[in-house]
Write a structure and sequence with these properties.
Length: about 350
């Protein structure tokens, strides 16, 4: 525990601490602390450490909304960002002592840890890259209250978006209805249908260095959308289906010449052969395939067992891993292709 700048026997602690730190994180950072740090003060242990360190500095301001919105606080924040410190805007919500709602709340711990993790990332090998990820299921309307969908939770796509952002990328996540929280740092584009997902991918793809199609878009939609809720008494014996747009195939012309394209395949038979056909037929750089029937590798679980196929090279079968670890394994190979 270190508390004083000139504590007896610890006169140079600020130098030792500053040199030892991989990241210095201040959470919460009060209005007073932002002011003193922006002015370059060194009259306590923490501000002295800031002047002595070469490590990244992360601050999470938290204060009353009026203090946050004051022009002087704004100038202090701008000065600290100009110096190169990483400042996270406070959340909006209920404030202390009955002050109502507004900006000034300290973000949740998992958000803070995600930002600190990005600063700690040793690789940062996707810095200045734009990674476009799709995730989750789609919903194809049958009538105003019913839809066709699947069991996808979006966990794999969210893990990929989170890992890409942690490794320095600018991330766009196009996602259907997810059963997991959105990842920190990504630009979220929510969609419902395959057509909406196709349109969103097509808009973002020209600026993307990487497209990772981890979503599970529906293969079929009702041929006719009922304008009113279908009643049991008048329900048809069958609902005619028609194929949805193949997003990977339909966006071939929107890909950049050097864009790395990653597809996913969930198979129940001839797993590797079907994946190889999809890899070649849709112009992919690599494809990630798993067997839907295997324990620990299907929808809604936190693990996955995948095989990665590239245009050149043998198939790589990975052991059962967390989806976070699978995401990093995939991105390791993407980085190799970008190079």
């Amino acid at each position: 525990m270190h508390t004083e700048l000139f504590e007896a026997g610890h006169a140079l602690d600020h130098i030792r601490l500053a040199r030892a730190a991989d990241v210095i994180a201040i959470a919460p950072a009060t209005a007073d602390f932002l002011s003193r740090a922006a002015a370059g003060r060194a009259d306590d242990l923490l501000t002295a450490c800031l002047l002595a360190t070469k490590a990244p500095v992360f601050m999470a301001p938290a204060m009353n909304d009026r203090m946050w919105e004051h022009p002087q606080t704004g100038r202090n924040v701008a000065q600290l960002r100009e110096i190169g410190y990483h400042l996270l805007d406070p959340d909006t919500g209920d404030l202390a002592v009955g002050e109502g709602s507004g900006p000034g709340r300290l973000p949740e711990p998992e958000v803070l840890m995600a930002h600190i993790g990005r600063l700690l990332e040793a690789q940062a090998d996707l810095t200045n890259r734009h990674v476009l990820v799709t995730a989750g299921p789609t919903r194809e309307a049958v009538d105003p209250v019913r839809f066709l969908s699947n069991r996808s939770s979006g966990k794999m796509g969210v893990a990929l978006a989170a890992a890409a952002w942690r490794r320095g990328a600018r991330v766009t996540l196009v996602c259907g209805p997810l059963s997991v929280p959105h990842p920190v740092g990504a630009t979220i584009v929510p969609v419902e249908s395959v057509q909406e997902m196709h349109d969103a991918v097509r808009r973002a793809l020209p600026s993307a260095d990487v497209l990772v199609m981890a979503a599970a878009p529906a293969d079929f939609r009702p041929a006719t959308l009922a304008s009113e809720k279908i009643k049991k008494s008048t329900a048809p014996d069958a609902i005619a289906l028609t194929p949805t747009t193949d997003i990977l195939q339909a966006t071939v012309g929107d890909r950049g010449r050097d864009t790395v394209i990653v597809g996913f395949a969930l198979e129940t038979e001839d797993v590797l052969a079907n994946a190889q056909r999809k890899l070649e037929g849709k112009g992919l750089d690599l494809i990630v395939v798993n067997d839907a029937r295997e324990d620990g590798a299907g929808f809604g679980v936190d693990t996955n067992r995948v095989t990665i196929l590239q245009r050149r090279g043998a198939a790589e079968a990975l052991p059962l891993l967390s989806k976070d670890d699978v995401a990093d394994a995939i991105l390791d190979r993407v980085v190799g292709l970008l190079r």
